[in-house]
C-alpha cells in the first residue's frame, strides 16, 4: 500500500513539474486567446494539440462542431486535415525507399509506364522526388478543377496529366501541384500491392494508434464526433456539404483529430519512434525534411514577424528558419477546413491546429504565438496584427470583385438569342458540359461533377456573371465567343482557391 502511494505521489509530482515547465502563454493564456481569436476570425470550432519532449501537454477543443448548434468540439473531434495529408504520402514513399522497395530517384514511368506529361522530356526524366516537391513544370493548383470532387478516378486523373500544358520548364521553379501527389500515391499500389488508403492505414495510422483517423469522406460523415465544414459567405460562417475528394486522397483527404495528430507529432519529434517502437525509419524522416526545392522569399506575415530568412520545400513539408531553429510545417485547406501542422526537431516540439472553416488565416498567428512561447521570444500580439492585414486585404479584394462582377449601366445586349448559347461544349482535359436555357436563365451542367450547376446572368455583351450551386467554386465572369452570329466557345473560371486555370470550352457543331 505504501509503495503504491509513493508511486502515485511521484506521478503527481512529475505531472505538476511538467505543467509548471510550460510557457506562460500556453499555461495561462491559451484558452482565452483561442476563444477571443476564433470570434474575431469567425471560426465556429477548432482543436489544438501540443507535444513536447514526447508528451502531450495540450489536447483540447474550442467552440462548436457546427455553427448554430450546441455540440462542442473536443480533442477527439474529426476534421479534414487537407494538404497535411501530403506528409503522410511522402513519408510512406520515403519509408519504402529506406526499406529497399524503391528509390525516390526512380523515374515515375518505372512504376507507372502509362504516366505522361505534356512535355516528352519531362515524362522521361521526372522522378518520384520531383512529384513530392512540386517541381514538374505545372502552375499553382493547375488542373485541380478537373479532379476536385469530380467523378474521375485516380487512374483517370493520372492519364489526364498529359493534357496539361506546363507554365514553366521542368524543375525550374516551385509551383504547388496536387495532381503530382495523386500520381505519387498511385505508385504505392504498384510497389506494395495495397491501395494508398490501405498502406497508409496499415503502415502509419495503426502503428501510431490513430484508429479513428480516416482517408475517405465516408469515414468523416459517418463519425458521431466529426466537425461540420464551413465557409464565410457574406461575412458569416455557413455550413457546407462534406467535400468528396476520395479520388485525390494522396494529396489531401485524411481526416483526423487533435488527439491522434499528436501521435503523428510525437513520432516526428522522436526520430520515428512511438511507444518505444520504430514506426518509420529515421533515414526516411530525415529525407522528407531535407530541402529539395527553393520556394522563395518570406511572405508578408513572415516579413512582419522577422527572423525568417528562407523557405524551402522538402518532401510533403515546408521548411523555414525561425529564431535560429529549423521549423518544419505545412498547412491544409480542403472544403470547409483549415489546418496547420508544425514541429521544431531540435526542441522536440510539435503542434497542430484544426479548424472547421475556410476564409481565414488564423493558422499563422497560432504558429508564431506557440513558437514564440516555447522559444522564449518576447510576446507580440500577432493575432491582431495579422488580422488587421488580412481584413484590409480581404475588404479590398471584395470591393474589386464586386466592381468586376457588377453589370455596367451602359451594358451591351448579347449578340445572339439566348438559345444560341445552349448546346454541348467540350474541353480536352475536363470533358463535356451541357449548356441549357431553363426558365429564362442559362445553366451549365458538368459531366464530371454530377449535381454541380452554374447559373449565368447576363452582365455585358457576351459576358455572363456565373454563380455555382456549390459555393466552394465561387463566382466569376463567363465570356462567350460569337463569330458570324454563331456561338463557338466560352471561358470558365472557378474560385482561384480551387484552380486559377482558364478552361476554354468549345461548342460541338451538330
Biggest sheet descriptor? 8 strands, antiparallel
Q: What number of domains?
A: 2
CA-based gyration radius = 24 Å
The geometry reads as globular
**First and last CA, distance:** 90 Å
Assigned CATH superfamily of the largest domain:
DD-peptidase/beta-lactamase superfamily
Verbal overview:
- The chain is α+β, with helices and mostly antiparallel strands.
- It has two domains: 23-396, DD-peptidase/beta-lactamase superfamily (Beta-lactamase, 3-Layer(aba) Sandwich), CATH 3.40.710.10; 418-507, Beta Barrel (Lipocalin).
- 33% of the residues lie in helices and 24% in strands.
- It is built from 17 helices and 22 strands.
- The strands form five sheets. An eight-stranded antiparallel sheet has the order 2-1-14-13-12-11-10-9, sandwiched between helices. The protein has an eight-stranded antiparallel β-barrel with strand order 15-16-17-18-19-20-21-22.
- A hairpin with a 2-residue loop joins strand 11 (318-322) and strand 12.
- The longest helix has 24 residues, at 382-405.
- The model is unreliable at 1-20 (pLDDT under 50).
What does the secondary structure layout of this molecule look like, with pairings?
Layout: H1 2-20, H2 24-41, E1 45-52, E2 55-63, E3 79-80, H3 85-98, H4 108-111, H5 120-125, H6 128-131, H7 144-147, H8 154-160, H9 178-192, H10 196-205, H11 217-221, E4 230-233, E5 236-239, H12 249-252, E6 255-256, H13 258-268, E7 273-274, E8 277-278, H14 282-288, E9 293-296, H15 300-305, E10 311-313, E11 318-322, E12 325-334, E13 337-344, E14 349-355, H16 363-374, H17 382-405, E15 423-427, E16 431-438, E17 441-446, E18 453-460, E19 463-468, E20 475-483, E21 486-492, E22 503-507
Antiparallel strand pairs: 1-2, 1-14, 3-6, 4-5, 7-8, 9-10, 10-11, 11-12, 12-13, 13-14, 15-16, 15-22, 16-17, 17-18, 18-19, 19-20, 20-21, 21-22
Helix pairs in contact: 3-9, 3-14, 8-9, 16-17
